[in-house]
Amino acid sequence: MKRINVCFKGFEFCVTTKPRNESPVAGNDLTTRDPVIRHAQAKDALALASCIDAAYAQYAGRISDLPPVSDGCAEDIAINQVWVAALDDKVIAGLVLVADEGFMKLANLAVHPDHGGTGLGRKLAEFAEREAVRQGFNEMRLNTHVDMPENVRLYQHLGWAEVARSGSTVSMKKHLSDD
């Protein structure tokens, strides 16, 4: 499916087209459909926690001090800025932002492993940056684990700078522009 914005006599329409060769069966996954990024709702808490647990499961065996990363999803949804990426109404990724004094903290970004490598993590990180700028922030911060070097490299690739290491915590920040 392809979405096209069309203007006709002053009205803008979004038209969805289906190429003739697109099959409605196997092969139509995240590569051909985009997930919807939306604010999380209270009813998403269990699905979000499950998604986060699945995303971090690969680290559980190698990181002895990994905190319970999915604890408090319902509370996060109630008091922080939480978004989910959903595909066919199934939560496949989540993003938690916490507004702090002078910066926006990227508290959690998790993509279900079934959807890893599709660019969804990058899309959510970029979404987080746009949201921070929209709210008037020009800096974002995050903490990750020293035993997650692939995360450190990904964030560095996205323009984040490592600013400190303390114990198992790697602190990073990114200056944002409103361009």
Read across the widest sheet, the strand sequence of neighbours is 3-4-5-6-7-9-8
The radius of gyration is 18 Å
Main beta-sheet annotation = 7 strands, mixed
Coarse shape = globular
For this structure, the quaternary state is single chain
Q: What fraction strand? A: 35-45%
Number of strands: 9
Helices, by number, come to: 4
Averaged pLDDT, please? 84
Q: How many angstroms separate the termini?
A: 31 Å
Helix/strand/pairing class, anyone? alpha+beta
Q: Are there runs of 5+ residues with pLDDT below 50, and where?
A: 4-31
- The level of helicity is 25-40%
User: Order of SSEs, N→C?
Assistant: EEEHHEEEHEHEE
Features:
alpha+beta; two-stranded antiparallel sheet; 36% strand
Task: Outline the structure in words.
- The protein is an alpha+beta fold and 179 residues long.
- 26% of the residues lie in helices and 36% in strands.
- The chain is built from 4 helices and 9 strands; from the N terminus they run E-E-E-H-H-E-E-E-H-E-H-E-E.
- The chain has helices at residues 45-60, 73-79, 120-134, 149-157, and strands at 2-8, 11-17, 36-39, 81-87, 90-100, 103-111, 139-145, 161-166, 169-175.
- Strands 3-4-5-6-7-9-8 form a 7-stranded mixed β-sheet, with helices on both faces. A two-stranded antiparallel ribbon has the order 1-2.
- The longest helix has 16 residues, at 45-60.
- The two termini are 31 Å apart.
- The relative contact order is 0.12.
- Mean pLDDT is 84; it is low at 4-31.
